[in-house]
Amino acid sequence: MIVGVGIDVVDVARFKASLERTPRLKERLFTEEERKLPPLSLAARFAAKEALAKALGAPPGMRWTDAEVCKEPSGKPTLHVRGTVADVATLLGVTSWHVSLSHDGGIATAVVIAEAP
C-alpha cells in the first residue's frame, strides 16, 4: 500500500550558489558521504529529501541528515533513513521506499514513494 508520494525539483545553479554562499549548509543538509559528491548530485539528493518529507506529510522536526540517498552497484538510488525520519516512517507504517532521481537542463528532480505492507 502506498502511504505517500512526494516530488520535488531544484534549480541546480541556484542550489550551487546557495552552497557557495552558505558553506555550513552542506553540513545541515547532507551526510558525510553525500558531502563528497558534486553539486549536481547534491541538488538531486536535496530534491529527494524534499520529496521524502512530502511523502511523509511534511511533519516538523525531521533532520535532513537522517535521510541519505545512496547508490547500489547498479547505479540505482536507494533511500536510507534513521533517527527522526525513521521515527515518522515507523509511525506511518512505512517499510520500504522507492526513489528516482533525474537531472537535465539545469534542473534536478526526484520522486519518492513511501510504502507499507
TrEMBL record:
Keywords: Cytoplasm, Fatty acid biosynthesis, Fatty acid metabolism, Lipid biosynthesis, Lipid metabolism, Magnesium, Metal-binding, Transferase
Highest taxon of the lineage: Bacteria
Pfam families, A to Z: ACPS (PF01648)
Sites where the protein binds Mg(2+): D8, E50
Cofactor annotation: Mg(2+)
Catalytic activity, EC: 2.7.8.7
Catalytic activity reported: apo-[ACP] + CoA = holo-[ACP] + adenosine 3',5'-bisphosphate + H(+)
Domain 4'-phosphopantetheinyl transferase, chain residue ranges per copy: 4-94
Subcellular location field: Cytoplasm
InterPro entries associated with the record: 4-PPantetheinyl_Trfase_dom (IPR008278), 4-PPantetheinyl_Trfase_dom_sf (IPR037143), ACPS (IPR002582), Ppantetheine-prot_Trfase_dom (IPR004568)
Role this protein plays: Transfers the 4'-phosphopantetheine moiety from coenzyme A to a Ser of acyl-carrier-protein.
Stated family: Belongs to the P-Pant transferase superfamily. AcpS family.
Protein name: Holo-[acyl-carrier-protein] synthase
Species, as recorded: Actinocorallia libanotica
Organism placement in taxonomy: Bacteria, Bacillati, Actinomycetota, Actinomycetes, Streptosporangiales
